[in-house]
Amino acid sequence: MKITEVKPFAVWVGRRNQMLVKIETDEGIYGWGESGFSGRELGVKGIIEHYREFLIGKDPMSRGALWQEMYRSQYFEGGRTLTAAISAIDIALYDIVGKKLGVPVYELLGGKHRNKVPVFATTAGPYGQDMIDQAKEFMEMGINAFRLSYDNMDIQSGGLFEPRVSIANSAEWFIEARKQLGNQAIIGVDYHHRLNVAETASFCQMMPSHTLDFIEEPIRDETPEAYEVLRTLTDVPFAIGEEFASKWQFLPYIERGITNYARVDICNVGGFTESMKVAGWAEAHYIDLMPHNPLGPICTAASVHLGAAVPNFAWLEVAMARASNNYGEGPNFEVYPEQVLLEGNGYSLPEKPGLGVEVNEDKLSEPFKFWEAPHPHKEDGSHTNW
Question: At what angle do helices 41-55 and 80-101 cross, to 10 degrees?
C-alpha cells in the first residue's frame, strides 16, 4: 500500500477553523487526522504541504518510521507548529492502518483497558451560583469531575483582566462550591496560564485545603523551575501539558514530579506515536493522563482510542457545547456524519475499523477565516496572556 495524496483542509466549521488532513492510498483506503492548533492554522497547513512532497509513495503502515522522518527531516527540531502537523498526519495514518487490518485503533495500541472513557466537563456559566448549579447538573448525569468557572472579567472580548481581582473573587465562590457539591465532586480550575507564581500561590492559599482537586496551568510552562517553586507554596495538584509538543517537553514535568495529571493533547504532541510514549513514561511515575480535547470529532475520537488503550487514565476533557444538544449546538452531523458520541458520563468505545469518524468532504467548503484570540490587557495597559 502506498500514499497517493495528502490533502490539508484549513476550513471554517461551525464557529471556528479546523485544521484537518486526509491521506489517501492506492488501495482506496483513506484516513483523517486533525491538528491541535486553534489560530495560526495556515502555518500548519504549509508544513503539511511540505511533508506531502516526500510522503507520497511511502507505505502508511510504517507510521513510526514516518514520524521519525517528519520530525528529523529539518535542521530545526520539533516545535509546536511542526508537531501539530505531524500529529494530524500520524492520526490519519493510524486511521488507515486500523481500516486496513479491520480493527479499531485502540487494538493497534495494545487493546482496551476499559469499555468506556470517562470525561470531565467545564461549566459554561459565569462564576458564582450559576456554575455551581451547572456542576450539580453534571453530577446528575454521572459526571463528577469538572472545571468550574472563574472571574475572567473582560478577557473573552480582549478587554481587561486583572489577576488579583479575579483570584479574590473566584476563591470565595470555590469555597462555596465545595460546601454545596460535597467531597464526591472533583473540582478543578483552568487559569489558562494567566497568573504568575505569586498570584497562583495567593489564590490557592485563600482557600481551605481540598477546596480544589487540581489547578490547570495557572502559569506558563516554559520554565519548569517556576512550577517547582510554586509546588513549595501550595498542596493543590497540578494538571499540565496541553501545550507540550513532544515527549521532551514532558521530560522535566514527569521526571521531576512537577505535574500530577498529564494534559497530553494528541493533536499537538505528535499523534498516537508520541502520546503512547508519554503515557508509558507517565505510568512509570504513577501519573494519570487527563487529555486536552478542545477541537472537533477527530480529536475526540483519537483521544477516546488513546484513553481506552492506556492503564493510567483519569478523565478526558469534553466540550459540552459540541457534545450535547442540552448545552449548545450539539454534534455536527452535516460535516461528521459518523463520530464518537458522548453517552452519559463518558464515551463508549467505537467498534468500527480505524478511528470511527467519517467526514463529508463536500461539506468542507466554508473558507478559512482569519481569527485572532482576544488580546487582553491589565489595568495599566500592559498585555497579558490569552
Answer: 50
Identify whether the C-beta of residue 89 lies closer than 8 Å to the C-beta of residue 273: no
Does residue 340 fall inside a structural domain?
A: yes
CA distances from 329 to 319, 324, 341 (A): 11, 7, 14
358 in any annotated domain: no
Cβ of 333: how many Cβ atoms within 10 Å?
A: 12
Residues 99 and 125 in one domain: no
CA 269 → CA 89, 140, 167, 289, 323, distances in Å?
A: 12, 34, 30, 13, 23
In a shared domain, residues 127 and 172: yes
The three cell numbers locating residue 159 = 478587554
Consecutive H or E run containing 102: none
Structural domain harbouring 98: 3-103
Q: Could you tell me if 289 and 181 lie in one domain?
A: yes
In a shared domain, residues 299 and 338? yes
To which residue does cell 498585555 refer? 383
Last residue of a domain, one of 77, 103, 129: 103
**How many domains, the chain?**
2
Q: Which amino acid is at 216?
A: E
- Report the predicted TM-score, pTM, of the whole model to 2 decimal places: 0.96
**β-strand pairing of 238-240 with 261-262:** parallel
Tens place of pLDDT for every residue, the chain, 386 residues?
999 999 999 999 988 899 999 999 999 999 999 998 878 899 999 999 999 999 999 999 999 999 999 999 988 877 889 999 999 999 999 999 999 999 999 999 999 999 999 999 999 989 999 999 999 999 999 999 999 999 999 988 889 999 999 999 999 999 999 999 999 999 999 999 999 999 999 999 999 999 999 999 999 999 999 999 999 999 999 999 999 999 999 999 999 999 999 999 999 999 999 999 999 999 999 999 999 999 999 999 999 999 999 999 999 999 998 888 778 788 999 999 999 999 999 999 999 999 999 999 999 988 888 888 889 999 999 999 88
Q: Is 182 exposed, middle or buried (0-12, 13-18, 19+ CB in 10 A)?
A: exposed
DSSP states of 157-185 as a string?
A: GT-B--HHHHHHHHHHHHHHHHHHH-TTS
Tell me the three cell numbers of residue 303: 483521544
